[in-house]
Design brief:
OB fold (Dihydrolipoamide Acetyltransferase, E2P)
Length: about 70
């Protein structure tokens, strides 16, 4: 998988590491594939991620590198 793809957030949990917020999350991609990953707050939509959110995920080499709202 590569490029921007629609997805649904199935789990999301923020955590703080030395004053920097990261997100652990799982996405259900449009083709049914589940991707679990961790990215920094700078790569997530303002307001964070919530279960059930419809998002667009930038995927490179089967890894989510950024998420935005459609």
């Amino acid at each position: 998988m590569m490029g921007e793809q629609p997805a649904t957030v199935t789990a999301a949990k923020p955590f703080d590491l030395h004053g920097v917020t990261y997100w652990d999350f799982t996405l259900r991609m449009a083709d049914g594939t589940m991707l679990t990953n961790r990215i920094g707050a700078e790569s997530t939509p303002e307001g964070g991620l919530h279960e059930g959110d419809q998002v667009l995920a930038m995927v490179a080499a089967n890894m989510v590198v950024a998420i935005r709202r459609p």
